[in-house]
Structures are given as C-alpha cells and as structure tokens.
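Entry for the shared binder. Reason: the reviewer on the internal report wants the predicted structure included alongside the sequence.
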Amino acid sequence: MHFKNKTVFITGGSRGIGLEIAKKLASEGANIVIAAKTSEPHPKLPGTIHTAAAEIEAAGGKALACMVDIRDENQVLAAVQKAVDTFGGIDILINNASAIQLTGTLSTEMKKYDLMNQVNTRGTYLCAQACLPHLLKSENPHVLTLSPPLNVEARWFENHVAYSIAKFGMSLCTLGMASEFKGKVAFNSLWPKTIIATAAIEFAVGNAQMMQLGRKATIMADAASAILQKDAKTVTGNFYIDEDVLRAEGVTDFSEYRVNPNTPENQLLPDFFI
C-alpha cells in the first residue's frame, strides 16, 4: 500500500488516462480527489465525476468528486479547500486535464486557442499554485503533469501550432517549478511512447481502427505509480516516457498493455512529440 493515507488531487480524471491513474493509486491506498467538469454524462464520451468516484472506491480507495472547470480560479480554490477539509491535506497533484484540437493556424478559432491555453497551460499553473501551500506540508510531495518532453522542433508545431503551444506550456511549468521548488516538491512530466487508446483521443483525432495500434491507459497508470513512489527531494525536473519508466523498474514484456494483442510492438503508433 504505497499510497496509504496519501491524498491525490487529479484534474480531468473522470475518464481515460486520468481515471486509470486514479484507480491505480486508489488500489494502493490513496484518497482521490477527482476535479473535473463532467458531472452529467457527455453525449459522446463515457464517464462522469460520479462514475469515476464509484470506480475509485471499488478499487479500494476513498473518493471525493468535485465539479471543477480548471479555467475558473474560484472553483479550483474551493475544490482544493474541500480536499483539505475532507482528507487533511494534499500530497500529490496530477495535472491530467487537457484540451486538444489538431488544426492549423487558419482553421483554429480563437475561442479554441483560448480553451486549449486556459485548460492546458493556465490550468496546470493554477492548480500547482493552489495546491502548493498544502504540498509543502507533505512528507513526499509530488506534482506529475501529463505533458511531453521539450522537443522544440518545427515538425511538432507546424500542423497544430495552437495545441503545441498549450501542451508545451504544461511542460514549461514542470521545467520552471522543478527548479523553483527543488528539494521541497517534485515536479515531473510523464508522456506515452505510443498513442493511448482512450475515448477522448478517438473522438478528437482518430478512429477505432487507429486505436488498435495503441496501448491501454494502464501503462500510464503503472508508470505514474512508479514515479510517485520516488523521493521528491531528489527525483524532480524529469520528462519521463511511460515505457522507459517501467523498463527501469524491471518490466520487459509490454504485451499486456497492447489494445490488440496481435499488433506487433514495432507497429504501434508513436505518440505526438516523440
């Protein structure tokens, strides 16, 4: 029970990777605060904060469902306070919430640009700022952000400049805050080597056939668990890739993570920014 009595504040955890991480940590004893905006069923995507809370409790953890739009500072601050009032503190922040639209400059409406930057970069910054006073009181405080390594190359921007700016902004929070709070709070990023088959990604960028060339979200959950067990005073400022994390933990067979067991490893689709 690596996370017994630890409290995890996770944004956007009502489905997909965020929910899998939440369930993994819950199975290891964590209290989970789900801070997401889906309180009523989405017409095209599964899961709400309430169904997520039920799955987390079924996995063995305690859950607190908070309806939060992380663009709204007051909602974030209220959810953080509710988490502290309920569980006594915050030990881990997982910046999972993200908005995505893979369109070029002439096809991206400014309201979509604003959405991606407010959720991704600003939301990550805001949640870190709100949680830090409590993280600084924790024995082994971690902030884990689901964002890519800082591979600043034109090919990762040219087809979706707005999204890339917003996503790399999350990584810049990791870079800067890891240095700012070195020795006090760990700030790391985690990103998948391959595409991860989630309903949100299928809806946004792909199709069911494309998902057959990806991995399950459980690989990200297992990698996150491994990172969050490490010493926050020394393990910080890293941009981890899920497969690399698990290889360092001794994992050599990744077949259990494939969506389609018949897809060879060398035919899995790499994720963006890799």
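Summary line for the report: The chain has a mean pLDDT of 94.
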